[in-house]
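Run log // design_07
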């Protein structure tokens, strides 16, 4: 369990710097290109360890296995992270960080529906409190950048879908966090790369350009890679994407889905502070109030995660125990 908390802390710090690093790199890379590169690098970095664990468990790559990772890669890299990259271009990095952090709300709901994971009253209360904090930050009565906010929320929803599908694989086929992260990244990056190739077909490229989707037309693969941009690209690919996501899923293995989701409840408080010092993005009153409410929701989630094992142990000791 102590190791799990270390994974949570590491993932929290790396994820809290993700939007900031992407914002800094925004003028250098096409957003889809950066998405492709950082997940390809992250997958390659994790590949030796993932293959070692795969061989130790004497697993084989079957059509079903490939299909599973193709599905998780599609929802994570092609859909969720593309929305995420675009959102950072439309609004502040701190705003995207806060809104994306609401994905555990959708994770816990989807996990309860499809994986039949228990939602206690305390968990439900923590979800409503956290959602209240997010609404305070969004301030729907005075939306200044609705496109960026919408893209960030879509990224959160589809990342929740990815998380729940990954969770299903770890429960049904005992896939580890490293393997799930690595193979999802690599296959998802190749899926995105295939779509990038299609964007160079003249008829498709012209259609996208004339339809207002020029960012998806003739997407480059390596145009932003220079000696100056390499350190930030490696930080995003190796640090944030490779180590960060691996730590998140290892935290799931060591603790629980609920406790691992604390990464995204702590991040709304840490990311705006880092953005203030690094990008000089101001923290408004609404943001400060929303952060405090979200931290309260995080505390409730943490308490509920510690109570579940106690309830289970009581049931095991006494079959007539009722919660």
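design_07 sequence
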């Amino acid at each position: 369990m102590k190791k799990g908390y270390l994974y949570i802390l590491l993932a929290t710090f790396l994820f809290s710097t993700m939007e900031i690093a992407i914002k800094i790199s925004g003028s250098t890379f096409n957003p889809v290109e950066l998405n492709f590169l950082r997940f390809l690098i992250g997958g390659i970095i994790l590949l030796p360890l993932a293959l070692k664990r795969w061989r130790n468990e004497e697993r084989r790559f079957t059509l079903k296995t490939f299909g599973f990772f193709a599905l998780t890669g599609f929802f994570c890299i092609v859909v969720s992270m593309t929305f995420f990259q675009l959102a950072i271009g439309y609004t502040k990095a701190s705003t995207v960080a806060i809104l994306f952090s609401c994905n555990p709300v959708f994770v816990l709901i989807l996990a309860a529906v499809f994986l039949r994971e228990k939602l206690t009253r305390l968990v439900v209360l923590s979800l409503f409190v956290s959602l209240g904090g997010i609404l305070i930050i969004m301030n729907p009565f005075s939306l200044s950048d609705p496109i960026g906010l919408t893209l960030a929320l879509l990224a959160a929803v589809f990342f929740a879908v990815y998380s729940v599908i990954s969770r299903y694989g770890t429960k049904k086929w005992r896939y580890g966090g490293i393997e799930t992260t690595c193979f999802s990244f690599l296959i998802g990056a190749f899926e995105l790369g295939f779509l990038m190739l299609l964007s160079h077909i003249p008829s498709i490229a012209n259609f996208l350009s004339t339809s207002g989707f020029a960012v998806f037309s003739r997407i480059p693969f390596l145009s932003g890679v220079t000696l100056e941009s390499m350190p930030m690209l490696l930080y995003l690919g190796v640090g944030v994407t490779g180590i960060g996501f691996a730590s998140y899923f290892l935290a799931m293995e060591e603790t629980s889905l609920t406790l691992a989701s604390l990464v995204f409840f702590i991040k709304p408080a840490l990311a705006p502070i880092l953005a203030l010092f690094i990008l000089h993005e101001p923290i408004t009153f609404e943001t400060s109030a929303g952060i405090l409410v979200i931290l309260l929701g995080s505390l409730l989630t943490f308490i509920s995660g510690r109570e579940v094992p106690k309830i289970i142990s009581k049931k095991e000791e006494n079959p007539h125990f009722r919660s």
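Residues 308-323 have pLDDT under 50 and may be disordered.
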